[in-house]
Amino acid sequence: MAEEIKSKVMTSDAGRPIGDNQNSLTLGDRGPIVFEDFLLFEKMAHFNRERVPERVVHAKGSAAYGTFTCTNPDLAKYTTAKVFENGKKTPTFLRFSTVGGEKGSADSERDPRGWALKFYTEEGNWDLVGNNTPVFFIRDPLKFSDFIHTQKRDPETNLKSPRMMWDFWSLSPESLHQVTILFSDRGTPDGYRHMNGYGSHTFSLINANNELFYVKYHFKTKQKIKNFTRQEADHMKSVDMDHSQSDLFSAIEKGDFPKWTVQIQIMPEAEAATYHINPFDLTKVWPHSDYPVIEIGELELNRNPKNYFAEVEQAAFDPKNIVPGMGFSPDKMLQGRLISYPDAHRYRIGVNYNILPVNAPKCPYASYNRDGSMRFDDNGGASPNYEPNSFGGPTQDPKYTERPTTYATATVGRFDHREHDGDYYTQPGNLFRLMDAGAQQRLCENIAGGLGQVEKRIQDLQINHFYKCDPKYGEGVAKAIGRDIKEIVKDEALVSA
């Protein structure tokens, strides 16, 4: 075999040199991702096929069926979606998961928790896919596979690597907000019932007047927040690797149905352009003082799956699945997921994943998609598989045409997200200051467990980030790894006396 020719310049799989591997190709710095971004799609398509057959991320999960009940009579001013009619009850399916661990990993690992919720509405399935955190580590999907690689196993040792994690985070300061959450008490929730869920991304709602409102979804547990300390989480690994699964299943089995209060934040479309925070940045939250939460209903889980593989392992959630009265946003991470998620499902469980019982709509549906591996229904029978046709096949209805979205004239390019927004420190600093002294100390000690194992140059860079969030944050982490903050923060004007 001829010797592989290696280049010092990063290229595409076909050898095309890459000039920017940090930023997706967008219409303006806040605009949507464009379809011509060959690099983003190549990276995500390759990433989605790296593991066979378990999910690349969110491999280990638990799920249950339930009901969403809308209790707010005033939502018609925001949306025509029937799921939000007052008193409407909609069947749901919610899958919880850890993110970075393999299928056999422990439920109590320090990790974000996935929150994938399917609403079987009368207008089709609505899939809301988020986490138990309102933010994420990155703001551009081009970096997603790079980030997840750092959470998986070292290609040489096949071990989890604090060095890879902290090297990436120290070079990606936009991760600070999520890192602060991850290493706080919230990074090790005591089961799935005792944590909140979030849609995380910015979505949109559209009313009968064709007015658009941007929206954030929140699910607040009614079981009260319960978290493990680091020591308790480590102990649970030796007691019950499947603690979250057994806790959820047992509670529902005995009729102790978990519930969440469902809330939204609403931002009128016009305000997004002038809001002082980029409302489409997944590393930031909308402060409740600016956009208060509005209670809209209750989610209850009340039925366990009968077959784990058929209903949980084969469950597929697509952020692209919305219903009339809803829309998306220029959130870059969301836009990347709109293509990445269905692509991953087609690879993992086949092109016909949408007609598997757990994924199929409960309302009438009709499509001209045919054939493909494992087609297990009548495949459309003798009906035509094309449109238009003159044989009475389903036809389009113009009333469901998507609302046009207007963007200011902008240039397509790879806009440096760090150049346009370098405030990585305000929100994680605010979060740190919300914690009591005990929680702050546990946060610093949790970080020290991994950061203390890596080179000093990585420690120095990361602790400087923490210090800019809040001096006590940087000092606490430095002390926890046995370092002197004055040896790390070189700008004497920054270092407290």
UniProtKB/TrEMBL annotation:
It comes from the Bacteria. It is an enzyme of class 1 (oxidoreductase). SMART domains: Catalase (SM01060). The active site is at H58, N131. The keyword Iron applies. Heme binds at Y341. Residues 1-23, 374-402 are annotated as: Disordered. Keywords: Heme, Hydrogen peroxide, Iron, Metal-binding, Oxidoreductase, Peroxidase. Signal peptide: none annotated. One of its GO terms (molecular function) is catalase activity. Residues 11-395 form the Catalase core domain. PROSITE patterns: CATALASE_2, CATALASE_3. It catalyses: 2 H2O2 = O2 + 2 H2O. Its cofactor is heme. This is catalase. It comes from Granulicella arctica.
